[in-house]
Design brief:
The structure holds 2 protein chains of 2 kinds.
Chain A (H helix, E strand, L loop, with lengths): L1 H26 L2 E8 L5 H11 L1 E8 L2 H9 L7 E2 L3 H9 L3 E2 L28 E14 L22 E4 L2 H11 L9 H14 L3 E5 L3 H6 L5 E5 H10 L3 E4 L7 E9 L5 H11 L2 H11 L6 H6 L2 H4 L24 H13 L2
Parallel strand pairs in A: 1-2, 1-3, 6-7, 6-8
Antiparallel strand pairs in A: 3-10, 4-10, 5-8, 5-9, 5-10
Helix pairs in contact in A: 5-6, 5-13, 6-13
Chain B lengths: L7 H23 E4 L2 E4 L2 H6 L2 H33 L6 H9 L6 H12 L4 H8 L11 H26 L2 H9 L4 H30 L2 H7 L6 H12 L2 H29 L6
Antiparallel strand pairs in B: 1-2
Helix pairs in contact in B: 1-12, 3-7, 3-9, 5-10, 7-9, 7-10, 8-9, 9-12, 11-12
Classes of the chains: A alpha/beta, B mainly alpha.
């Protein structure tokens, strides 16, 4: 019996040593940790990058900007590249969480549409490279909704009780309520915020569920009549179920940009820049935008798109559609209030 | 515990994974970071007692209680069937009970989503029977169903282990003395199995009161329970102080209920899993 133990021990040690050596072998390969939204890249692009530059990419996903922020702020993660949205980038710049990008290493930046440069969240284009953009709007099922959808007010219509999906995201859902009431979605006015809260609590009995990524499958399979979604999700779901249509309400909405940033403390800044540059190669940007369905800020990728996508107002809305749209600001001073409002909405019965 | 050298790794383990996190919890729950530094405060604990959070707490306890009662009502007969010697297929049944636990519980919860959802399997069957569709997903019932499904084995197994260890000669003696089936059950089997029942209740109640993923997936984010509230404070809001304060209050409640359970357990001595 003892002998068996000894042999087992010896075997175990050998396995351990071999394992450690093997581990060393792979550690010599450069590593890049990327943190992105769920379902937000054509994954074959990552494989291609790994092969082309002989780099090991560790790819993780998040569901909301806030989730990503807390994870990085809490020090529990050491990502090199992340892809947050505008207002979160502004907040992270203010809190010194981002590294300035050396644009001489990102020559493909020249392809980014001028409209997406010098935006308020990164006024001098030092920290971020736009990846995708879009709007927030209402996705509805034409079989269940017969009236025209042109206002946020439809989400408060008793007729659609338990047929509405809202986004499980504080800024987006409060933004919808603020716009419905005719206020700015960057309001710092506590009275307006309080009214938005009342509206959301009033709406709660009508809401079937507060969702994030799962809204796509739920709408495709006809689980609800109306849903607040990001435009790219609308493009994707419309393709899967022709009964679905998307509208940007006339009160206006949120125009957003997601951009690639490099996080402070990265050990592979060069590799991170290499990755961002790779993502801006026309062919790669084209593949990502067609896979995800979101709109690209990349001029060359846009030229490759078929006309039916370019002329689809869901993906590429007209200036008229965007008239009342606003970009989120960081609101660092009142963000706690927004979070409190959202918790109270979620906890209300 | 005898203090021998091989107990030290366990002590280190306990220190790192139990004691230090608990201190961190206490630290965050009772301090506030101001510009002058870190100060002791009771404001977070006070906030937990605000009506809106109290409601959430009460709802969670209520749902967990319902889940525990349902588990007990289903679990006790199942355990006694499994434990009875006369029944020949009990090995297979025990295996059937345990096998689902090998699959990740998140996967199983997602499976319930596709069963309960509109145009899901249950809806298709209802449609086939020409019955009106029912909204099952995103309701309280779905949350209770998910909890019962996930936690039932934790009720069955302790009761099962107590019942199999029970001295059958006592039952035979009672029967020889003329006790009928109901009397045997009432006077012998149930009292002797109480330790198993008690550990079953604790093992179901505790995860049920703190669950957050079941209520989020099957309740659709509108049935916010105390677990969701804590998760939200840490993940979304980033208010670690308040999140810790809620966790602290919850820990105290669980400790108190464990104390009560222990008291009963001691009266009926031994046989429980822990």
């Amino acid at each position: 019996m003892k002998k068996a133990f000894k042999i087992f021990g010896l075997l175990f040690s050998i396995i351990m040593v071999v394992g450690i050596l093997a581990g060393c072998g792979s550690a010599s390969k450069a590593q890049l940790k990327v943190y992105n939204w769920g379902d937000y890249i054509d994954e074959t692009v990552i494989d291609e990058f790994e092969k082309k530059y002989n780099i090991d990419v560790i790819y993780d996903t998040f569901a909301t900007n806030e989730e990503m922020y807390v994870k990085i702020k809490g020090g529990g993660a050491d990502y090199d590249v992340a892809i947050p949205s505008d207002y979160m980038i502004e907040r992270m710049i203010k809190e010194g969480m981002l590294e300035k990008i050396d644009f001489s290493n990102v020559p493909n930046y020249k392809y980014i549409d001028e409209r997406f440069k010098n935006l308020p969240y990164d006024p001098n284009n030092e920290y971020s490279v736009p990846y995708m953009w879009g709007t927030v709007g209402i996705l509805y099922n034409k079989k269940m909704v017969k009236e025209p959808v042109d206002s946020w007010k439809i989400l408060w219509d008793e007729k659609y009780k338990k047929q509405i999906f809202m986004l499980d995201s504080s800024r987006d859902s409060i933004g919808v309520a603020l716009k419905m009431l005719g206020y700015s979605l960057n309001t710092r006015n506590m009275d307006e915020l309080e009214q938005a809260k009342e509206a959301l609590i009033r709406q709660k009995p009508l809401v079937l569920s507060y969702v994030s990524d799962e809204v796509k499958n739920a709408m495709i399979s006809g689980q609800a009549a109306l849903a607040v979604v990001w435009s790219g999700d609308a493009v994707y779901t419309k393709r899967e179920n022709p009964d679905l249509e998307y509208a940007i309400p006339k009160e206006g909405s949120n125009l957003w940009v997601d951009a690639m940033v490099i996080l402070k403390g990265t050990k592979n800044k060069k590799v991170a820049e290499q990755f961002i540059n790779f993502m801006c190669e026309p062919e790669i940007a084209y593949r990502n935008t067609t896979y995800i369905g979101y709109s690209t800020p990349h001029t060359e990728a846009r030229k490759m798109l078929p006309p039916e996508i370019l002329n689809d107002r869901t993906a590429y809305p007209t200036d008229e559609d965007l008239k009342n749209c606003e970009v989120f600001e960081a609101l660092s001073d009142v963000i706690k209030e927004y979070d409190r409002v959202w918790t109270e909405v979620k906890a209300a019965r | 515990m005898r203090k021998t050298w091989y107990a030290y790794p366990y002590l280190v383990w306990m220190a790192i994974f139990i004691v230090i996190p608990l201190f961190l919890l206490l630290f965050y729950a009772f301090t506030v970071t101001t510009e002058e530094g870190i100060k002791f405060t009771l404001q977070h604990i006070k906030r937990v007692w605000e009506p809106i959070y109290l409601m959430v707490l009460l709802r969670s306890v209520l749902l967990a209680l319902i889940c525990t009662v349902v588990c007990l009502v289903i679990g006790y007969p199942v355990a006694s069937i499994l434990a009875s010697k006369e029944y020949s297929h009990n090995k297979v049944l025990a295996l059937l009970l345990v096998i689902p636990m090998w699959i990740n519980f998140l996967v199983r919860t997602y499976a319930w989503m596709s069963l309960l959802g509109r145009n899901g399997l249950i809806d298709i069957v209802m449609d086939f029977l020409h019955l009106p569709p029912v909204q099952l997903l995103y309701t309280d019932h779905a949350v209770v169903l998910g909890m019962v499904y996930n936690f039932l084995p934790f009720m069955v197994l302790p009761i099962y282990s107590v019942l199999t260890k029970m001295d059958k000669s006592i039952i035979e003696a009672a029967e020889d003395l003329g006790a009928d089936y109901a009397t045997v059950l009432k006077r012998i089997v149930i009292p002797l199995s109480l330790p198993g029942v008690i550990s079953g209740i604790t093992m179901v109640f505790m995860p049920a009161v703190t669950t957050f993923i079941i209520s989020r997936l099957l309740g659709g984010g509108q049935y916010i329970l105390i677990g969701n509230l804590i998760e939200q404070q840490f993940i979304v809001v980033g208010d670690w102080n308040f999140g810790s304060a809620i966790s602290f209050v919850l820990t105290v409640i669980i400790l108190i209920s464990m104390g009560i359970m222990r008291k009963y357990d001691r009266e009926y001595e031994g046989g429980a899993i822990w």
